[in-house]
Design brief:
With about 375 residues, this protein is α/β, with parallel strands linked by helices. It has 14 helices and 13 strands.
Length: about 375
Amino acid sequence: MTSPALHIVSFDIPFPANYGGVIDVFYKIRALHGAGFKIHLHCFLYQREPSPELEKYCETVNYYHRNTGFLANFCIKPYIVSSRMSVELINNLLHDDNPILFEGLHTCGFIADARLKGRFLVYRESNIEHHYYYHLFKVEKNPGRRLFFLAESIRLKLFQKILRNASIMLTVSQEDTKYLSTAFPENRVVWLPSFHNHDAVHIDPGHGSYALYQGKLSVPENSVAAEFLIEQVWEETFPELIIAGLDPPEWLIRLAGKRKNIRVIKNPTDAEMFTLIHEAHINIMVTFQPTGLKLKLLNALFNGRFCLVNPAMVTGTSLEKLCIMASDPASLKKQIPFLFALDFDETLIRQRESVLMTGYSNQNNCKMLQEILTLR
C-alpha cells in the first residue's frame, strides 16, 4: 500500500515553532509524517530563513518569496493573501492530484482556482481573520498601521466568501466552528484543536516565586495585554511578574522598567521559555479578542502550575475547568495573593491529564485528521 501524499501550504516557515500559528503547522507536519504521510510543504520567505529541520518530515520543501511592500497594498484582495499568490506555487500544486491543506486564510488565494476543481481542498482556520484584524485596528497606536489594519479587516471580510470552495474547514475552537457553520451552512466544518509540542503533562507540584505573562510581544494584542497587567493589575506588594516573548516594543520595556517587581525577558530561547512556564507559580493570560485558540494557554496547561485567565482566553476551548477565571482588574488582583498562598498539588495535575490527554492529544487529533484526508 502506497503512503498517502499531501500538499501543505503554510503562511510562514513553520520552524522554529516558537509562536502561535506555526506551532500548529509544525507539529501537525510532524504528526502526519509519523502517521506515514508524504508531505509536500510550501511556505513563504519574508522574515525567516529556510529550515533544514523541515526536511526530516517532508518529501519536498518549497520556498516562495512574498510580494511585500507599500505598493502591494493596492489590491482588492487582502494584503496577507495577495502577497502570497505565487505563480510558482500554483504550478507546483498542479503537478499531481493530492489533497491540499491551506494553513490560514492567508494561503487561500488559489482555493477557487478552476484548475484545482475536483481536488480535496482543506481550509485550516486559525482565526476569524477579519475579527482579528479589526481588533488589531482598535489596539494599535501607530496611525498608519491602524489604517492598514482597518482596511485589511474590510478586505478579509469581503474575501472570506471564497472559503465556500473548501471541501472541509478545520477549526481551532468551538466558537469559531459555530461562526463558520453559520456563515457557510453548506460546507462541512469540523473542530480540530491545534497541534502542539506536548505529548504528556509535565508539571512540578509545589510552589513558584513569580508570575509569568508570555507571548509574541511584537503583536499588538499581546503587548496591549501586557500593558494592561502592568498598569491596571500588578500591585507593588505582589511577587515578581515576568513578561517574556519575542520582539517586545521599546515602549513596553520602558513601562515595565518603572516597576521594581516587573521585568521583561526579550526573545527567550525555547528552552528558556519552557523553564519560565514550568517554574512560575502563576501563568497569567489575558486577551481582549475571543477568537481562535491561544497556544500559550496549552503550553501553560501542559507545563505550568496555576493558570489565571480572563474569559476571552478560553472561549470555545472547554478548558475553563482547568483555569482560575477573573474578568476584570479587581478580580485578577484578588486572585493573585490567594493563589500565591496555595501549593499546586497532585490532584490538580491528574485533573489536567484527564482533560488534556483526551481533547487536546496530538495522537487523537492526528487520527481524526488522517481519517479526514484518507476517507474524505
